[in-house]
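Second attempt. The first submission of Hydroxyquinol 1,2-dioxygenase had a stray character pasted in from the spreadsheet, which I only caught after the job came back as garbage. Lesson logged: always re-copy from the clean sequence file. Corrected sequence (338 aa) follows.
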Amino acid sequence: MAMAEAMQSAGANALTQTEILPIDNQTGYRAFQAGSFVFRRDDYFARISWPGGTHTMPVDIFLRALMRDVAWGFFYGVVNFDDVIGTINHYGDVTLFAGRFNDAYRNAGRDFEERFASEALMPLFKAMISDWTNEGFDPFAAPMETGLPWGSKNGNNDPAVNRTRVAARRMVGLPGDTPLRTDESGFPVNRMFADVPTDEPVIEAEPGFEDEVSAYNLFNYLARSDVTWNPSVCSVVGDSLFCPTSEEFTLPVDHGNDRCEWFITLSDEIVWDIKDKETGKPRAKVVAKAGDVSCMPADIRHKGYADKRAMLLVWENASPKIPELITQGKAPVVSVTF
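This time the job returned cleanly.
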């Protein structure tokens, strides 16, 4: 009842386009409906159905993908949960699809999609990640840092799934902005980064400029991240966003770009599988080592793998005009033409 009431408070769009269904007496989990899509889970799997189709995903993979879609606010462009299910962000509206970016589905005419107001779909996704995440499992954590998602309904882990994504207004550490991470604030150094220096730079600002000059140890900040594959906005200059993150295991989604996206590998190694955005066909494999810089074009999807926890700096141009300019052919899909 409390969850249904929470959905009602999200507004009329949530009532007309989405619905939280009753608890399953056997599994203890609720089902969720978004338009013609119905989401159910059991001990091991998330099961999605729509008119003319069904799809099954291991529930750990589904929850890790759903967690990023929620935390990122549907992110830039396409969030492919796997080769079938995902969302497209239209920045105000969002498309939920099955097979939209899958050659086999599209060639057979079996792809299906529906468009929702973002404010309607997001509360449903938040309710789903809360209900389907059992006590002890953190869909933001690396597998060796969390419990298991399997089995019937067993409590929740709302403190984990309700984390607020870091989004600095100017820069981390500035007065009144996002604070630095410290032992005292509950962010110890991750087990993989025990060798990272934690000393902070000394700032000697002229009187009157104390709030205008700032610096911090980015490696120390990232070494204390309690999540993986979750870019945090740590500095902002106009539409230019620096979004560093720590990576371990696999990126839980295939991210389909709607703009160019720059990656600077700050430590260790990340392997990227690059596929065609529309068809999913392989295009490249990129092995990015510490110090390597790469640019993901606007017409691909990418998925990363990191054995040793790695630090990655993602640079985003967040201008809302870019997707339309690319569609109109007024902006390139690559950063450099050789």
